[in-house]
Structure formats: C-alpha cells, structure tokens
Amino acid sequence: MNTKKHLDTIINDNSDLFDIDSNLDRLVKKIELLSYLNPLNSEKEKQKFFSSKYTVDPILKYPKIKFHPYKLHRMFFSQRLERISDPKVQKLYQDIIYYYSNMVQCIQTIGEPKKFYYNSLRVFGTPTEKDVLNAKFILHIPDEGVNPDMEKIYSAEDAKNYFEEFSKQYNFPLNIKYSTAIAADAMVSNSTQTLFIKKNTKFSKNQLLTLANHEIGVHLVTTYNGIEQPLKIFSNGFPRNVETQEGLAVFSEYMSGALTLSRLKTLAYRVLASDSLIKGYSFSDTFDLIHNQYKLNRNDAYSITLRVHRGGGFTKDRLYLSGLKKIYKKYKKGDSLDNLLTGKVNMDYEDDIVNLQNLGLSNPITHNNIAYLQNKNENKTLDFILNHLK
User: Of 44, 53, 215, 225, which one has the fewest beta carbons inside 10 Å?
Assistant: First the structure.
C-alpha cells in the first residue's frame, strides 16, 4: 500500500489526471441508471396484465430525471484529456467519457422504446448466437429434485442477522437498510456502500448463502477496494463493467456451493428474454415465450420479462451468463482474479489496470473474496454445464 507521502508525490506528478478524475467523479454521481429505471407502478401493472389474460402490455411509469442531460454531456466532453501524459491512461479516460455519456443518453430516453433500446444496446450489447445456444442448452437439462434449502422460511430480519454474521469474515463495515423500492430481494448501492434488503420478503437458506456471496463477497468487496484506489474511476466504474462484475458475483455463488441449476436456468431465461427484444417481441410476446413455451411459473416469467422490457428494452440481463462463462474460463486456466476485484472494472481493461499499477496509480486489493479461496461446489451437473458452454 502506498504511504501518504508517496501518494502525495504521485498526485502532484499527475495533477491534471487527478483533476479530470475528480471532475468526472462529481458528474457521475448524478447518473445511477437503475435508480431511474425501476418502474414506480410495476405491481399495479402486473395485476392488470394477469387480469387481461396476458394480453394488455403494462404501461410503466418512471422517476423524473434530476439533472440536465445536455449540460451534463457538455461537461463530460469539456475535459482536457490531452493533458494526461500517459497515452494509455488518456485512451482509458476517453473510453470512460464515451461510456458515461452513453449512460446519460440511456437515462434521457427511458420510456421512449426505440430510442432507449438503441442507447441500451450501445452500453450493454445484445446476446450473441452462442449466448442463445448456451441458454437453450441449460434449459434442456432436466430439473433437479426438491431441495429443502430452497424453502422460503426466513424473514428480512433473519436475512439481516445472517448477512451481519457472514460479513464478520471481511474487514469492512456493513451498512444494511430495509427497502420497499428495490426490484431484487437484496442489492448493493455502490454510491452509499449500503446493502438493501427488500422488506416483507421471505428468503430460503440457499438464497441467503447466494446473496451473501454475490452481494457482500463481490459487489461490496469491489466497492470497498474501489474506494481505496487513488483514482475515483475504480469506484465509479470502467466502461461496460457489468459483465465482469456480475460474472465475478455469480462465480462467487458457484465457488461457495450456493449456485443451483434453478439459478442458472434463471440466467438462461434472461438471455432468451433479452434476445426476444431484437426479434421485435412485445412484452406479452416475451412473457408468452418464457411462461407458455418454456413453462416457467407466471410470477417469475413476469419478473424476467419486466426486467428486460423496462425503459423500452434493457439488455443488461444478458450479461450474467456470458460473464460467468468468461470468469469460469479464466479460473480454469489458473489466472488470478485479483485485478478484477480492484473496483468496478472490466476484464477487457486488465492491461490498463496493470499499467496504472506500474505507474503507482492503482493499489493491490485489500479485500479478497473468501469464496474464491476454496471450491465448495459439489454439483456435478453444474460442472458439466460450465465446461460445455460455447
């Protein structure tokens, strides 16, 4: 770890870079995409959709934007990147500005189907043919028998106690809050370093183990490692970091022995739902595909359909499966995952992380993922699937 004096010297030698980095930090605070993308009326519209026998598509409402998009674009592009002396670092920051600017365009066009969908594609891409084949391959594997660990018998308060006990393995603080405004049962807010638990939700034993290793073991680990880096981009996020971050998080579920075939099938459904957008499917078409053709129960089918159709067509969910595949491949090769835990980074930029480390602009990680130390997966079906993904 750099001493303060050494760090001060590095900051002085790279003052233009640190100025640009802190300018971007101020601007990025305004653009948390998911906070604008969670529909305000999804439960009400769900009841209407079910009452209409799955024929009347939901009309979703979204929070109002709290910033001026054009002004924000202008401020992003006014950064004097030519003042950054290292050409690789200059190129990295150029990519970052384009990425954040695309994110602003996404938020700006939420609820305008065609515009939002194309902006979402620029940021999150679309499932490849291989992704779709992998998803179908997973869905053709016969379901496993009933597991008592899957029974939802634990309250939100039980979950809080479980997570607090689990986090004692890590030397960072755990802030937990209950929420009624999140789509997932639990999620990490990077900006406030908080783990939110959905109020009035029941959890299974397996789900608690899954969420602990996913949210605390990866999302909070990368949050706190990112905060400890000299540059704020590690906290705010490298371009297109979702695939790597979610891949690491689902891989953490696998290593801890929490990953199930049922969970893997959920990730496969998300790929097919994302793929249905390119084919021009409406909300009810996608729901029909997941519920009637693939026989997933209607509540889960609705949830998956809502996730990809919100905003006008949101393809982020396709990245969990491809991310897992890439991280698993890296692990099988014996490569270290440490650089990928330095913050909200993308494995495609690993050379840039190494370059920043060589320049004294990035520190080695303080917090590692406990699950990565030992493979506790005993499910041979999962190994078979992961070894055969294209």
Answer: 53
| Distance in angstroms (rounded) separating the CA atoms of residues 335 and 39 | 40
Q: What is the pLDDT of residues 169-208, one digit of tens each?
A: 999 999 999 988 777 889 888 888 889 999 989 999 999 9
- Say if residues 111 and 59 touch (Cβ distance below 8 Å): no
Model confidence over 221-265: pLDDT tens digits?
Answer: 999 999 999 999 999 999 999 999 999 999 999 999 999 999 999
* Residue from 258, 241, 230 nearest 360 by CA: 230
Question: Are 67 and 88 contacting, i.e. CB atoms less than 8 angstroms apart?
Answer: no
Pairing assessment for the beta strands 203-204 and 175-179 based on DSSP bridges: unpaired
Which value, to the nearest 10 degrees, does the dihedral of the CA atoms of residues 347, 344, 182, 328 take? 30
- At 152 the three-state DSSP class reads strand
Residue 269 near residue 296, CB atoms below 8 Å: yes
For residue 154, what is the enclosing H or E element? Answer: strand 152-154
Does pTM top 0.70 for this prediction? Answer: yes
Question: DSSP assignment, residue 64?
Answer: P
Residues 128-132: contacts with CB within 8 Å, 24+ apart? Answer: 128/322, 130/390, 131/271, 131/275, 131/318, 131/321, 131/322, 132/271, 132/272, 132/275
Q: Calculate the alpha carbon distances from 267 to 139, 263, 304 in Å.
A: 10, 7, 9
Indicate the residue type of 206: N
List the structure tokens of 213. Answer: 């290793």
Which two structure tokens, joined as six digits, stand for 31?
């653009």
CA–CA gap between residue 184 and residue 38 (Å, rounded):
10
- pLDDT tens-digit series, residues 301-342: 999 999 999 999 999 999 999 999 999 999 999 999 999 999
121-125-127 Cα angle (round to 5)? 120
Q: Residue 384 contacts by C-beta under 8 Å, 6 or more apart in sequence?
A: none
Q: Where does residue 280 rank: exposed (0-12), middle (13-18), buried (19+ CB within 10 A)?
A: exposed
Residues 6 or more apart in contact with residue 380 via CB below 8 angstroms: none
Residue 188: both structure tokens together: 């990490």
